[in-house]
Records
---
Amino acid sequence: MQNVVGQRIAVPSADNGALVMNAVENMMGSNDLTSLRTRERSARPFVVVDRIRRNAETRFLSEEQALQQKVSATEASLRQLQGQNQPQNGSAPVLSKEQQAQIEKFRRDLVQSRSSLRGVQASLREDVERLGTSLAL
């Protein structure tokens, strides 16, 4: 029993009544009616989307890998340059003008490489998104 808006209402917990009614209807019904039951969902892959994605990956994969390597190399160079000037006593590192310029160059390269990498990844998704938009329209 459940209290709903001041009234007590019986709520089935296992719903055995529905099970029995469905079993009786199944035994009384014809074979034509029992064949109308829902069928299992079949797996229908998006063949066109998969083909577009594979084509885009072959076009942009090498460029994406090169940019990933450049980002990793730049980050490693930046960490190395910043790490070699760490003083032992915990005070602020002392960098020469040349080292500061090199750090700024690495940071600009890093930002530019990451931006290019995002552009390549957007190009990978562009054809699939275009297809989705045309289907939605």
Note: Residues 97-136 form the longest helix (40 residues).
---
Amino acid sequence: METRAWNSALRSYTAQLDGDRLDASVLLLPWYGFEKASSERMRQTYARICAQLGAGGGLLYRYLGEDSPGEGAFGICGFWGAEFLALGGGTAEEAQDAFLRLCGFANDVGLFAEEIDPATGHALGNFPQAFTHVGLINAALSLARRLGDETFEPTGVPPQGAEREAPEVRP
């Protein structure tokens, strides 16, 4: 599996075995326990995904191709990148910076769309989008664990009476 999932020419894991197409979803491999985020292969994968699928501001396209013309960057993919950094693919500071930068794409009441226009920051696609919010929550939880602070709140305002033991949710 490890040999067929890795493309040595791209220096990246790919969307399918023996493939050559990048997909931001491979940033979830560390979360699923396939490989540590800090491994050389995962760091190379992250770098390749950022180089080819990066849309600026921490935003990522899921993949590029003929079947995705004119799409915006998928919100959940950016949060996958922030979570990857929080899981050890980068420093805690890099993870926090990426997370907070992505939070800036929320609307005035903190909701996210499915996609974000990288040029304008405007919401595109389905709104509000549960999957983007799932990515936000998972990245926040991983970042809080990385920072060693169970009270971490991205807004800096702790919720009143909030339950701290929330289950992790994955798409």
Note: Helices lie at 2-5, 40-53, 75-89, 92-103, 130-147.
---
Amino acid sequence: MAAPASLEIVAEGLGFPEGPIAMADGSVILVEIKRQTLSRCWNGRTEVIATLGGGPNGAAIGPDGCVYVCNNGGSIWIERNGITYPIGVAPDYSGGRIERVDLATGKVDRLYDRCGDHPLRAPNDLVFDRAGGLWFTDFGHDLGRSRDKSGIYHCAPDGSRIVEVYFGSLGYNGIGLSPDDATLYAAETLTGRLVAFDVTGPGQIARRGQRFPGRVIATMTGNPPEYFDSLAVTAAGNVCVATLLAPGITTIAPDGRYHKLETPDVFTTNLCFGGADLRDAWITLSGTGKLARTRWPEPGLRLAFNA
């Protein structure tokens, strides 16, 4: 385990930030789940781009330059000892959905709120492949005495097509693609597992003759538990997973070797890479409402549609 990261706090007072996107102008676009907004942080200030309602949970730039957002429909929030916690489904839960935000106008379009006969419950994180297809996870909701199962989906960014790729997890959260788009990674929160799927086509994965088509790359076994949240991939193909409760960024190689960089917020939820050399790592410290920056030992992967 590496020493705690040397973090520069670049924004504070955020409403449980997640889904950071490093922009070419030096700003970072992110969602504020509690505030229900898509926001931009730069030059020491935070500006609201659009108010989405519900619970905007993940964000990515699409092929048209718009921001695509996973919305979980809304949560209940509490504060304890300066930490913000989501503790359940909001009484005014507005349904899970995929939304598109025009950065120039702030206009919000709802693209998907179901797949066939099945409503989306709590879309969480998303990534575009280089062909323009959108992969996303639906984490599901904890309902007290029962829990939704979780799935992975693939859709077109114009709202014309959505398919269920795999369903049945205990809670897929972060999602990402290898540098060659041949491997899809998903972080399973409650088990602390990183799972890999072999991509065979748009919205298709190899089934390999098994009920479970994925390969478990690594499993965390720490005490306290190390729950996995969202993730980012490096140019070399390592997977950096934001880790909760025993907080930090866990970097996992494709062969399963891993190391962890500690961070100070139990809700260290996500990261992205930016800067001219893609070694600026922007990390969301959601429990304390902060966005931090640190230098990373290797360049991040340039995402498909980030200029």
Note: Residues 20-232 form a domain with the Neuraminidase fold (CATH 2.120.10.30).
